[in-house]
Every structure is written in C-alpha cells, then in structure tokens.
C-alpha cells in the first residue's frame, strides 16, 4: 500500500519534469561568463527569431507576395512577438511613397523596380527565396517560444500560399523545440528497449529461480520513484540526463537480482518465510548497500563538473540507485514473501504462475547440496585467473603499458560540443536549419557589449566605426559588423555628426525597435561581429582563438578613456565548455578515485582491500582512453563522465571478487587456491551481473541522438573491460600484494621474536654482574 501511494505521488511529480536544451545546460548560471551573457546581452539586447523561408520559381510573383503579407499581418498580432520583418512591408512602404497606397503592387515591373532599388538582401537573397523574420525576446520562456512557433505555423497555413511554393518555418527556436520533442519520443524508445533486453537477459541467465522476470517490475518501480523525485527536485530532462534511465535499469536490476536470489536460496534450505526474509536482509542487505555506497562515491565526482547537464546526470544517477535499492529491499522482498505464501496455498499454480513446489525445492536443494560438474564458463574463468596469477609480471607489465599509453592517448581525444551534431542528422528541423544556413549564410556572432558614460559621444562612435572596419578587413572570419553607427551614418549622409546633441537628435527619431537593438539607456551600446559558420567550420577552439585575437586588438586599438568592452554571446558561452570537458573530466576521474579509495578504507580499514579494487579500475580508465582514441571517438558532455561511471560500476565487480577471495582465505586456503575458488564460485555471478548491465547500456546504442548512442557504445566497451580486468588484472594484483603482506608479517614476527630473545640475554648478564658486585 505504501509503494502504491508512492507510485501515485511519483506520477504527480513526473508531470513537473521540464525539458532543457539551451545554453544554460552547458554553462553554469553562477559563472561570470554566463552572467555577462545573461545580464549584459540576453536581457538587454538578446532576441530569438523564427524564420519563415519561402522558396519557389519566382518569389516576386504578386500573388505570392500578397500571401506573405497576409501571413505578416497575422503573425505581428501574436502575443510575445516583438517585431516582424518581411519583403511585403518594404514593397508596401515604397509603393506608398510612390502612389500613396500601402498595398502590394499588381504590376510585376513595379515590383521588380522596388526590389532592385530598396529590397535588403537579407529579406530576398535571390529571385527564388523570400524571408520573413519573427522576432521575440531572448528571455522568452520555452513555453512562450513554442506558443509563438505554433501560432506562426497556423498563420502560414491560413495565408493560402500558392501551391507551387514551399514554405519552411525554421530558426533556432524551432530547432530547439523540435529537439525537445525528439528527446521525449526517444526517452520512450530507450526505456522500452531496456525493458525488452532485460526480459531476454533474465529469461536466459536467471532461470534457476521462480518468477525469474520479477526483478524487472521491481526496478521499474524504482525508476518511477526516480521520475517523481526528478520532477519535485526540478531536475530537467536534457540530452544527457535522459540517458540515466537505461543506465539505472542496468544497475538497479542487479540489486533486485541479489535479493531475489538470496531469499530463494534461504527458502530452498527449508527455512520458514519469516526466517528467509530476516536472513536475506541480514546477509544481502549490507553487502548490496556497500556496493551502492561505492557506486555512489564514484558518481559523486560528477558534481564537480561545471557543465550543468553533467551535474543533473549525477543527481539522477545518485537518486536512481537509492530508489532502486529501496524498491528491491522493501518491495522486492515483500512481493517474493507474498508470492511464496500464496504458492503454498497453491493459488499461483492455478493461475499458471508457478512450477510445482516439490520440483522447485528438490531442484534448489540439488543446487546447494550436490557437487556439480563445472561448466564451460566456470572452467574458462578458473583458467584465466590461474594463468594471470602464474604470470603476474607479464600480465601486469602489458596491462600497465596499455594503461599508460591509454592515459597519454586520452589527451589527444577530440572534443565535440556542437549541439547540432548531437541530434539525429535526418531530423527535419535540423535539415531545415541547415538549408536556411546555405541560403542566408551563417549567423554565428561575437557580441561586444560597450559600457560608457555617454552613448552619444562622437569619439565613441568614431572608435566603433574604425574598429569595426579594421576587424572586418583584417580578420577573415569576421564577415561584417553592425552597430548603432550604421543607423547614425545612414541618417546623416554617411557621416558621424561632430556633436553629441546631433547624435542624440538622431537617436530620438529612431523607432523603439531600432534603438533597443543597439542601445540600452545612455551607458551601454552593442557591436556585433558576424562570424558566419565559424562554430562548425572552426570549432570551439577556433572561435576561442578568434575571440582572443579580438581581445588583443582591443588592447592596441583601445577604446576612448572610461569605455569598457566585454566580449560575449552564444559562441563565447559555448567556448567555456572546452575547459569544462578537458580539465573538468580529468579532475572528475581523479576525485572519483580518491572517493572510492577513501570509502573502501573507511569500510574495511584495510589498506590492501581499499587499494586493490581501485588499482584495477585505474587500469580500466587508462584502457578506456586509449580505446576512445583508436576508435576515433570524441568527448562529449556525456562521454566526459566515463571515468566516474567506470569507477562506480566496475568497482562492484572487483569488490565482490575480493570478498569471496578473503572468505576462502579465512577458511585456510593459500592465495592461489583462494583466488581459483573465488573465480569459480563468484565469477559466474559477476559475469551474469555484468551481462545485465551491458544489456541495459546496449539500449543507449539504439538512441537516434548520436551523443547518446556513442555514449552507449563506449560504455558497453568499458563494462566489458571492467569484467576483463576483474578476471585478468585483479587476481595477480591481490595475490601478489597479499603474498607480500604475508611475508612482511612473518618477517616482523620473527624479528620481534629475535629482538625479544636478545633482550632476555642482556637482562641475564646484567643480573649476573649485579650479583658479583654484591658478593
């Protein structure tokens, strides 16, 4: 009943989950860079534009232009729209000056004449394309932008464009909204595929228990709890965080399997239902909780990232594993307890949900009591661990060299942060955006916010004009500059007035739209440098280098005294992601290693037990970096988390193997024999656990988002590497260190004994001398 109530509450929380795909998912809002962008640019000058692009054989056709005008008149009345620019407005204004009638001319020759003399190329780049721009505030919420987009699409439909023309509604807001929709549908695909793969795994490897598919609905309840917590804690769904759920299914189902397997084992021993539950909680609960703590410590390092979507990913993983543990501990054990009660009353047998109890009990006792012939997997695991233990120098040398080489190659792995490469490349919104770029050219910008005491100072405007001309002429990737100077010169016969009063008079005549585009009060103005498609052509490193060049130019071609210039904008914000994904991910991995080591040391209070699993996972981290380099993969906001994930997931396998190793050592086995026994008895369970995790991560590969599918590929490889290291690297490390510790202990004991004997001889001599002196 409690679980049902929590499920209902979780569904309510899930309704509060928002989608996030904007700039603030890449850059921390508390950073100075983002605050400059948000406060100085976005709030004061920032706008977003929905672009309506009409293409056909001849966009100068009067009927086409009249349809465009009908769309213009409808769109400009949409709430939240700041400005609409359209070729139809230029034609109507010029025609009004010529004839006194503000209408689209019917005469094609008149239209051609107006276009040739007065039409901006941005509105009609050629005879086959016409552009209408719907401008909204840059601070408009996602819901407001979506409302404006849908209203614009409706206005286009009602405008009755001629049938032989193609009308495309595109632009950055349209792309972001389409991406959010794609993420929603992709989320369902990933969860559905994860569930299907888990059914296959459980059916194949968990067939020795009753109700073999039960762990799946138990972990799904944990996922529902996670969704609810996500909504109540205001954690948004992003390209990264949506991948947490298949990961959680892969991890969480292991908890459910452990509890399910143990309670079935206790019941098979003939214990009562109550005793089986108590023993299961007593023995399995702490072991699984230790694994959860170590996994959480590995994930905790994700919070050190300065990329918000990685922090959200870490929050979801931390919350999710706790929720899956709670669901497995309380709900899972309770359901099995109830099912077993019902099975004894033969109720489930009538429903076809249960095999005969006697058969199950006989089979279970056979598993426990009878010696069975080792199967192929057990023989293989024993052989691998034996070979690695007998050749420690060879194995560890090769592993160490590969690790060092991988850590070096990791520094050469590229970084990809272009949002457009993360999404499905056949997504219509992306294709439309790319097509618009081909027609209009790129619109990436460097935005220079200029703080001054007087926006109308002629010296300031002269400097802006000279600096703009210098940068456009001298820097190949700066295609054009735009500022209030262009408007002032156009209003004053191409010259900048000599006095502040004349400039202020021109400002006073401007429309609010013209003024607000470049001026804020009397102290802030903006200079825009159009850098075309620099984000895709140069990459973020190139954009950063270009901004550094502009910074250098500002130093030697300095603005007037008292004027301060800040470079900001979308491009500069994304540049900050470079350092976050390079230095940030390295620090994340190092912190994860320290946290896992510290956690193991606190739990075991044994240096050997704390060090061995960590050394094994450090090797895997090195292998992973080399694997990424040689497969040509690039770091993204998701793959940057791999170090933490390897530590969190892989440490569990090494810990389980270590626990069994020392259990056998406590029984009196020597190190080699203990390792062989551990490989056989726990190895198969570790492989099964790894298989469920691998299958859970495999669902990510099917994602239409390349950022997610690439993450799935490399994560599956890393889990396989972690399993390989557990059976190849872990045995020689722990056996060698354990032997060294044993030898050191024997040496110290013998040294203490000899030291104690020497002291007794000296004492006897001293007593004899004392007696002689007394005599």
From TrEMBL:
Q: Does the keyword Transmembrane helix apply?
A: yes
Taken from the record, one Pfam family name reads: MMPL
Can you tell which superkingdom this protein's organism belongs to? Archaea
Q: Where does the signal sequence lie?
A: none
Cellular component annotations (GO), alphabetically ordered: plasma membrane
The protein, known as: RND family transporter
Q: Does the keyword Transmembrane apply?
A: yes
């Amino acid at each position: 009943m409690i679980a049902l109530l929590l499920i209902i509450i979780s569904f309510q929380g899930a309704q509060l989950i928002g989608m996030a795909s904007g700039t603030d998912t890449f850059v921390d809002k508390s950073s100075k860079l983002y605050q400059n962008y948000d406060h100085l640019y976005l709030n004061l000058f920032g706008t977003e534009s929905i672009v309506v692009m009409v293409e056909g054989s001849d966009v100068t056709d009067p009927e086409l232009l009249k349809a465009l005008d009908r769309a213009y008149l409808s769109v400009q009345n949409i709430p939240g729209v700041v400005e609409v620019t359209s070729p139809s407005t230029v034609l109507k204004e010029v025609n009004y000056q010529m004839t006194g009638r503000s209408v689209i001319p019917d005469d094609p020759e008149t239209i051609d004449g107006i276009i040739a003399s007065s039409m901006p190329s941005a509105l009609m780049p050629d005879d086959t394309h016409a552009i209408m721009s719907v401008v909204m505030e840059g601070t408009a919420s996602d819901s407001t932008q979506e409302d404006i987009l849908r209203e614009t699409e409706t206005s286009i439909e009602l405008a009755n464009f001629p049938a032989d023309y193609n009308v495309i509604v595109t632009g950055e807001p349209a792309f972001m909204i389409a991406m959010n929709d794609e993420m929603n549908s992709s989320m369902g695909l990933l969860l559905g595929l994860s569930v299907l793969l888990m059914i296959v795994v459980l059916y194949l490897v968990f067939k020795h228990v009753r109700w073999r598919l039960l762990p799946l609905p138990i972990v799904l309840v944990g996922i529902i709890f996670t969704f609810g917590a996500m909504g109540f804690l205001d954690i948004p769904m992003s390209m990264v965080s949506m991948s947490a759920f298949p990961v959680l299914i892969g991890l969480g189902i292991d908890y459910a399997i452990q509890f399910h397997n143990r309670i079935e084992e206790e019941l098979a021993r003939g214990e009562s239902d109550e005793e089986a539950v108590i023993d299961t909680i007593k023995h399995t609960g702490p072991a699984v909780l230790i694994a959860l703590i170590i996994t959480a410590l590995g994930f905790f390092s994700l919070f050190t990232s300065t990329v918000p979507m990685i922090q959200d990913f870490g929050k979801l993983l931390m919350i999710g594993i706790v929720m899956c543990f709670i669901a497995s501990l309380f709900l899972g054990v309770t359901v099995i307890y109830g099912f077993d009660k019902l099975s004894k009353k033969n109720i489930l047998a009538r429903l076809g949900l249960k095999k005969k109890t006697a058969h199950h009990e006989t089979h279970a006792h056979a598993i426990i009591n009878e010696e069975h012939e080792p199967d192929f997997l057990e023989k293989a695991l024993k052989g691998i661990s034996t070979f690695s233990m007998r050749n420690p120098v060879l194995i560890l040398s090769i592993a160490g060299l590969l690790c060092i080489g991988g850590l070096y190659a990791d520094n050469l792995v590229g970084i990809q942060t272009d949002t457009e490469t993360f999404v499905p490349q056949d997504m219509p919104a992306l294709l439309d955006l790319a097509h618009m770029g081909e027609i209009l050219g790129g619109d990436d910008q460097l935005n220079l916010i200029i703080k001054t005491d007087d926006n109308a100072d002629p010296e300031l405007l002269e400097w802006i004009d000279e600096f703009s001309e210098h940068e456009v002429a001298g820097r190949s990737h700066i295609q054009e500059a735009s500022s209030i100077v262009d408007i002032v010169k156009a209003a004053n016969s191409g010259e900048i007035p000599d006095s502040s009063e004349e400039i202020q008079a021109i400002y006073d005549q401007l429309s609010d739209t013209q003024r607000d585009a470049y001026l804020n009060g009397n102290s802030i103005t903006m200079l825009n440098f159009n850098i075309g498609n620099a984000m895709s052509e140069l990459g973020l490193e190139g954009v950063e280098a270009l901004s550094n060049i502009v910074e250098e130019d500002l130093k030697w071609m300095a603005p007037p005294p008292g004027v301060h210039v800040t470079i900001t904008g979308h491009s500069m914000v994304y540049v900050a992601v470079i350092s976050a994904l390079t230095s940030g991910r390295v620090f994340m991995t190092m912190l994860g290693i320290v946290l896992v080591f510290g956690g193991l040391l606190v739990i075991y209070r044994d240096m050997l037990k704390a060090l061995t699993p960590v050394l094994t996972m450090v090797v895997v981290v090195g292998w992973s970096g080399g694997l990424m380099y040689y497969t040509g993969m690039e770091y993204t906001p998701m793959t940057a988390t791999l170090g933490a994930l390897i530590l969190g997931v892989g440490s569990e396998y090494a810990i389980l193997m270590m626990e069994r190793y020392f259990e056998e050592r406590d029984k009196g086995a020597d190190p080699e024999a203990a390792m062989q026994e551990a490989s056989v008895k726990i190895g198969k369970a570790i492989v099964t656990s790894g298989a469920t995790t691998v299958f859970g991560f495999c669902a990510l590969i099917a994602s239409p988002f390349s950022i997610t599918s690439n993450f799935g590929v490399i994560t599956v490889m890393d889990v396989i590497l972690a399993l390989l290291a557990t059976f190849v690297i872990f045995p020689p490390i722990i056996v060698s260190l354990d032997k060294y510790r044993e030898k050191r202990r024997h040496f110290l004991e013998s040294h203490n004994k000899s030291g104690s004997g020497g002291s007794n001889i000296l004492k006897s001599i001293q007593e004899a001398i004392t007696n002689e002196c007394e005599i």
